[in-house]
Amino acid sequence: MFSRLSLLVSSIHILLLAAPPFTSALGTSCTAPLTTGTAAPQDPYWLETIKHQGISAFNPDPSTYQVFRNVKDFGATGDGVTDDTDAINAAMSTGDRCGGGTCGSSTITPAIVYFPPGTYLVSAPINTYYYTQMIGDAKRPPRLLADSSFEGKAVIDADPYMADGSQWFINQNNFYRSVRNLIIDLRQMPTTAPAIGLHWQVSQATSLINVVVEMSKENGTQHQGLYMENGSGGFMGDIVFNGGMNGIYVGNQQFTVRNITVNDAVVAIAVPWNWAGWTWQGVSINNCTVRIPLALPGPAHLQSKGQGVGSEAIIDAVVMDTEVFVSTTTPVNSSLGGSLILNNIVLHNVPVAVGVQDGEVVLKGTNDTTCIQSWAQGNVYHGTDGQPVFTQGSIPGPVKAGNLLDSEGRIFGKSHPQYADYALDQIVSVRSMGATGDGVTDDTTALQKVFDEYAGCKLIFFDAGTYYITDTLIIPAGSQVAGEAWSVIMGGGSKFQDESKPRAVVQVGEACPSNFLGITDIVFTTRGPAPGAIVVEWNVHEPVGVQGGAGMWDSYIRIGGAAGTDLQLAECPAGSQSPNCMAAFMSLHLTQGSSAYLEGTWAWTADHDMEDPQLRQINVFTGRGLLSESLGPVWLIGTAEHAALYQYNLNGAESHWIGLAQTETPYYQPVPQAPAPYSINKKYADPTFEGTVGRAWALYVQRSWSITLFGGGFYSFFQNYSTACLTNVSCQAQIFNVDDASTIQVYGFSTVGTDYQLSIDQKGIIDEASNPTGFQQSFAAWTRW
Ligand SMILES: *[C@@H]1O[C@H](CO)[C@@H](O)[C@H](O)[C@H]1NC(C)=O
Ligand SMILES: *[C@@H]1O[C@H](CO)[C@@H](O)[C@H](O)[C@H]1NC(C)=O
Ligand SMILES: *[C@@H]1O[C@H](CO)[C@@H](O)[C@H](O)[C@H]1NC(C)=O
Ligand SMILES: *[C@@H]1O[C@H](CO)[C@@H](O)[C@H](O)[C@H]1NC(C)=O
Ligand SMILES: *[C@@H]1O[C@H](CO)[C@@H](O)[C@H](O)[C@H]1NC(C)=O
Ligand SMILES: *[C@@H]1O[C@H](CO)[C@@H](O)[C@H](O)[C@H]1NC(C)=O
Ligand SMILES: *[C@@H]1O[C@H](CO)[C@@H](O)[C@H](O)[C@H]1NC(C)=O
Ligand SMILES: *[C@@H]1O[C@H](CO)[C@@H](O)[C@H](O)[C@H]1NC(C)=O
């Protein structure tokens, strides 16, 4: 808990920040600001009718490779009667795409597989290829109807199994997938069929948005809405599961879920295993038998590793007419069982809040209404003594800054904007305006001209492509930007070479005006070397009273490891230390006057070459991950990996909600030791490294207040590419430092491979030895006071 004084100070800051007037710097060709969509109700979604001229710049044949595929152009009928399976799979696979068991990853065959309104009957799985967005009409979401004779694992399969048991993709590298605006209907299949809506065995840079799965509600139903046996995700939100044996079954290293509803399932959410844990934000469960059975110690294939659940952190849930809210498979009477955090939970007619399967009741519910303010199971810590207290009971909950909450006191959330009601004349295409996206031509001037003319009055559409820029692109506050299958903005050239004078590739807003801003489906990157590049500098604050008004969804910062970056296997093989592989000064900088809502923002420095058939490891050096100096509000639902100095650095930051944060220390360290190959730059509040002995910090907190980390997984797997250090959990000494002047509240937290899980002023406080929970070490909560 932090002091009232800091709360007060923080709200004063917020008021001061809100004071600058709403700046409405409209583009020069604008007549009026873009406020509401003007499409007629019967118009198709603009994504269907906009001119399709996206390209894949580094495809062997960019002039013929088709990015956007309307399934009807491939023969699908959407009439609910004709079998559309082959047509949809043709739309998915045409163009020598990456998948089928012969290609493990690639960025050069991106696609949108688009579904106009209708009902698409399918009799076999739709196998999704690498780098695919499956998008339904956002106004009238189409239905994928599984035929009664459906055969195969799942209606949508993100990682198909082959006859020999191997899979198309390595589950931890299964990046770049999104499914949006689709209803999957299993109800024609026999109740007893092991039907699955989505086999979603995925990693980072993946999302589900606005997806519904309809299942049988008959006694004995075997249907499952979503099945995920492993992976390293990820984000999903605005999802609904009706009926079924399991609403969802989810085992994955880590994940963030926002706004999930499960109705009428036997088991709402089944959790076989995880490491760092899962953060659940906004959960609604109705009429299920059990909400979450936590598998402890885990299913057979993991039992030998002692792998159960590291952590589950659940906030803002409403559960109705359900027998048991959370149930564990075995009694948990020590921290070995992983941690469970409950915050702001309302139960209506839920007799058992937390219980053991067929056993004791740990926390009672009632047949009336029960409210759980803040409850934990697992080791709880306070202050500097490092003594764990195993707790199964109420704990002080996070003190949440008011500007992070919605009108009902829940953590505010905002869905990925899809601009469903925009008319075509409200959208301007950057290719139509002269940018090429060909990965070669310098598009700086052409892109800047589009923003200068249309910022604030048109949705600026980045047709698929790689837009190479050689100087800072300014995205003015007020802009709305949408990519197509992750359009790439790539900075390179002489302006980004000076590490001592770093320069933004993309500068979002100038001097922190208060205005709307939204960016979706863009990848930001560099062409190496670019040791002076700040890939994204964020300077915009949401307008007064418009929470989440400045945000980014399903947009990633990706450095190296992809075609066109000059930071691949050929240039930067593992173990090499080429100055030409210094790829960026920093991934993302949130400046002091900014606010940000970042959902599914993965800032990744490539550890392997995605275009290499063997996915071989590479040494690409990014100086810094995410630096936030923002006074808030900031919602951070993302991950950061492999920067040399740190993954997250909070400096003078306030009012941040972070859930879940996942990080990995660079695999090459300590060869060279952090900060090498970069130098310390005090202007950017760089940390020092006494505590880590030359390794990157996962999270470094300086003079920051009102920060809640609700779910964290900080991993250090390697020393100079060797995992021998994992045996003794000693790949690095420290990983997470808080200075004595900061108040950060930590819940549902796990680490891998580090001696100390948390340090104050670079003195180790929480020893991992107290918290073994499997491959990872976990504790339930730490607060400073
Ligand atoms: C469901 O089926 C089982 C097994 O057939 C049976 O024992 C049980 O009574 C049935 N429950 C309901 C509510 O029909
Ligand atoms: C992923 O899950 C499958 C099915 O449970 C299991 O056979 C496989 O070993 C798992 N893979 C990894 C890498 O954990
Ligand atoms: C939650 O998801 C549902 C279903 O997509 C949607 O209707 C609702 O608006 C979402 N709520 C929030 C707060 O995002
Ligand atoms: C509760 O779920 C059961 C089984 O799924 C279903 O048969 C019943 O109609 C549901 N009750 C309500 C009130 O929705
Ligand atoms: C925990 O529970 C197990 C199983 O009921 C029991 O064998 C063990 O003695 C208990 N340990 C403690 C510390 O209570
Ligand atoms: C609720 O529980 C109380 C006490 O156990 C019991 O008397 C009452 O009948 C129950 N009400 C319902 C609706 O089940
Ligand atoms: C790092 O590992 C490589 C490959 O195993 C080895 O050749 C090299 O000597 C190691 N470097 C150091 C400093 O340990
Ligand atoms: C781990 O610790 C044991 C016992 O201290 C030691 O024998 C072993 O060499 C260590 N292993 C590694 C990989 O450091």
From TrEMBL:
Q: Give the top-rank taxon of the lineage listed in the UniProt record for this protein.
A: Eukaryota
Concerning Pfam families, the annotation shows: Pect-lyase_RHGA_epim
Q: Where is the signal peptide?
A: 1-25
Q: Which is an annotated GO molecular function term of this record?
A: polygalacturonase activity
SUPFAM superfamilies, sorted: Pectin lyase-like
Q: What PROSITE patterns does the record tag this protein with?
A: PROKAR_LIPOPROTEIN (PS51257)
Q: Which UniProt keywords apply?
A: Hydrolase, Signal
All residue ranges annotated as the Rhamnogalacturonase A/B/Epimerase-like pectate lyase domain in the record: 68-290, 427-487
| Stated name of the protein | Glycoside hydrolase family 55 protein
Q: Which organism is it from?
A: Pisolithus tinctorius Marx 270
Lineage runs: Eukaryota, Fungi, Dikarya, Basidiomycota, Agaricomycotina
